[in-house]
Design goal:
Elements lengths: L1 H6 L1 H28 L4 E5 L2 E4 H18 L11 H23 L6 H10 L1 H4 L10 H10 L4 H24 L4 H12 L1 E10 L11 H10 L9 E10 H5 L6 H10 L1 H4 L4 E10 L6 H20 L4 H8 L3 H4 L4 E6 L5 H7 L11 E3 L2 E11 L6 H34 L5 H7 L4 E7 L5 H6 L5 H7 L2 H6 L6 E4 L2 E11 L6 H32 L10 E3 L9 H9 L7 E6 L4 E11 L3 H9 L1 H23 L3 E2 L17
Antiparallel strand pairs: 1-2, 1-15, 3-12, 3-14, 4-9, 4-11, 5-6, 5-8, 7-8, 10-11, 13-14
Helix pairs in contact: 3-4, 4-8, 5-8, 8-26, 9-25, 10-23, 12-18
């Protein structure tokens, strides 16, 4: 074979030419590059690159793991730039640990692997009654994680090896009682202080500004007065509701659906009963229950002898005040309205029957079934609107399952327009103006699917902004896919002074007021260093009891050197103004705090171990030259919203 290839080079080149060239004609160079594109490199560890695709896959695995352990959780909270960045940090950390394990030649033995697998609750559940492992279920467990049993065991072995990297640091962490006492004493410590505040708000009325001042401030801080980056977009939504509009249900389908669901659509059977109740609490002593039952048995004997006297006996003897006055009558009720024991008895009786004594959580009942209301089937015509709506919904759900793959593929393969997928699936192309980058809070996202973080990230990507490609199909809610494309991009730009003059004036006034407060505070500080008698009365503060002082003041007071008391310091509060703080005494923690200190040693040891582990991991990251190439996202400020349709 190899001789043939070597001796017929030209023939082989011709065959390859015929195979390759048509594929380039059909798909283009860009198709090949996009097929192989794994996304940008987002991090590096020990010379190895982590690309966007690996990051996305790791985040999906993390979300799937959380969803499996907590099915009721809203996974939208993990679909944010901050949550995804946290996944990248974990991915980098795991690769750093794996690289360190390889460098240290840490290997898990077969014995250690076997012990780990034996101790795993997930695998223990796969054992049969004789203790043997059910291999078929074991294969299914591995397959559910996208692995063969061999791959699963390799993963466990790798985890065991990686665990050894930091296990020693964690296991050796120890905090002595003296360390704990010192740290907790410092944390719980109280200090007697005198505080003189210079709020910036007190100086706002004293600020005078000229137009030249405003112009100079604007020129220096142009970046603060920019329009918000936004985009005008068009988009298509594939969801149950949009598909329901396209579903046409014919008469025969409706009739068939009616016949198949007649029992479900019919009204429920109802029964009417009267009862005599002799109460006995669920947790009542057995002797009391025995007495109550005996009384019920005696009454049962009377009403069975004279069934027509049931109502009269109920009025005189029943301890259910609501029904006793009505001769025990409970009116009509369906299943689910009564406690189970009562319901089971009532629905097993024939009309006019009197039951034996029935015990429930309320006591002992004697039941007489007085009437039965059979379920009534509603006519086809009366049910037509509800039938049509129900059937349309079911057909739309089925159609969504069939259309989702088509939608996903078409918006990607024909990425220069949304028209092909809209025409194919009979969807409308919608428009929205001034959509901005910042995602909304989860509650707002539900009302505005265009505010979904994943969609916004795709919309403001390079491919979307510069090449105006369709975004991928993004699931913004259950059974709801959206693809969008940018029609017009408005980058952030400096707004004219005339438009933002009021904001410039407000900002500059605040800055000037803060400067004036600081100047006054510093002058007062200098004077107090000569004579501190003019300070306000002393207060006692701690981290737990701040006496409404600002965090910077608390921090400055608690950082003051206790060996140099009294200590006088100035605290710059920025936009809030300035404070002068005089620390006069150091006080021991309060008595109740000492109890907390006694309880804190174990927790402090864990924190100490965590701190040592984090320091060790930081060192490993430096050794392995770990680097994250993606900018860490900053939480949007309160009040920032995503605009859309």
């Amino acid at each position: 074979m190899f001789d043939f290839v070597r001796n017929n080079t030209k023939i082989m080149m011709g065959i390859l030419f015929l195979l390759i060239i048509p594929s380039f004609v059909l798909f283009g160079l860009e198709g090949y590059s996009r097929f192989n594109d794994q996304g940008a490199v987002v991090a590096k560890v020990n010379g190895n690159k982590i690309n966007q695709a690996e990051w996305d896959a790791a985040h999906k695995r993390e979300v799937d793991r959380i969803r499996a352990s907590m099915p009721s959780i809203d996974v939208k909270i993990f679909d944010t730039p901050e949550a995804k960045y946290a996944t990248l940090e974990r991915l980098v950390r795991d690769q750093v640990i794996a690289a360190a394990a390889q460098k240290m030649q840490l290997v898990a033995s077969d014995t250690r692997l076997a012990r780990e697998l034996q101790q795993s609750p997930a695998i223990a559940a796969l054992r049969t009654a004789d203790g043997k492992l059910d291999m078929e279920r074991y294969k299914q467990l591995a397959a559910s994680q996208g692995m063969t049993p061999e791959m699963f065991e390799m993963q466990v072995r790798a985890d065991l090896s990686n665990r050894q990297v930091i296990q020693g640091v964690q296991a050796s962490a120890y905090a002595t009682q003296a360390q704990t006492q010192t740290a907790m004493n410092a944390f719980m410590q109280r200090r007697e202080v005198q505080v003189l505040n210079f709020p910036a708000a007190d100086y706002l009325s004293k600020v005078s500004l000229s137009d030249a001042d405003l112009q100079a401030y604007y020129d220096k801080n142009t970046a603060k007065f920019q329009s918000t980056e936004s985009a005008d977009i068009e988009y298509v939504i594939l969801d149950i509701e949009s598909l329901r509009q396209t579903v046409v249900v014919n008469e025969q389908e409706l009739k068939t659906y009616y016949e198949q669901n007649l029992q479900r659509l019919s009204s429920k059977e109802e029964r009417r009963a009267s009862h005599i109740l002799i109460t006995a609490a669920k947790d009542a002593p057995e002797a009391d229950k025995k007495t109550a039952r005996a009384k019920a048995e005696a009454l049962l004997k009377d009403v069975k002898a004279k069934p027509a006297s049931f109502a009269e006996v109920a009025r005189k003897n029943s301890q259910d005040p609501g029904s006793a006055v009505k001769g025990g009558d409970l009116d009509f009720f369906a299943r689910g309205a009564m406690v189970k024991a009562f319901e089971d008895a009532a629905f097993s009786m024939k009309k006019s029957d009197i039951s034996e004594v029935v015990e429930s959580e309320f006591g002992f009942h004697i039941i007489q079934l007085t009437d039965i209301k059979s379920p009534k089937a509603q006519s086809f015509e009366s049910m037509r609107p509800a039938l049509e709506a129900d059937l349309k919904k079911q057909l739309a759900q089925r159609k969504f399952a069939e259309s989702a793959e088509t939608f996903t593929n078409m918006v990607y393969e024909q990425s220069d327009s949304l028209k092909p997928v809209a025409d194919k699936l009979k969807l409308s192309i919608q428009k929205a103006n001034q959509v901005i980058r910042q995602p909304l809070a989860s509650a707002q996202q539900a009302k505005n699917p265009l505010a979904h973080p994943t969609l916004l990230q795709a919309l403001f990507s390079e491919a979307s902004l510069q090449k105006q490609r369709n975004t991928e199909a993004v699931e913004v809610a259950p059974s709801t896919l959206i693809s969008a494309r940018v029609v017009k991009h408005q980058p952030a730009a400096a707004l004219p002074l005339a438009e933002v003059k009021d904001l410039v004036k407000r900002n500059l006034t605040q800055d000037k007021a803060a400067e004036m407060a600081k100047t006054q505070g510093e002058q007062k500080l200098a004077a107090l260093k000569i004579n501190a008698d003019s300070l306000p009365g002393a207060i006692v503060i701690s981290r737990e009891k701040t006496q409404n002082q600002r965090p910077q003041v608390i921090d400055a007071a608690l950082r003051a050197d206790p060996n140099q008391l009294p200590v006088l310091n100035g605290v710059d509060l920025g936009a809030q103004g300035y404070s002068v703080v005089r620390v006069t005494k150091v006080l021991a923690p309060e008595a109740d705090s000492k109890v907390l200190i006694a309880q804190a040693q174990q927790q402090f040891t864990q924190l100490w171990g965590s701190a040592e582990t984090q320091a060790y991991l930081a060192q490993l990251k430096r050794m392995m030259k770990a680097e994250i190439l993606v900018t860490k996202p900053v939480l949007a400020k309160p009040g920032q919203e995503t605009k859309g349709a």
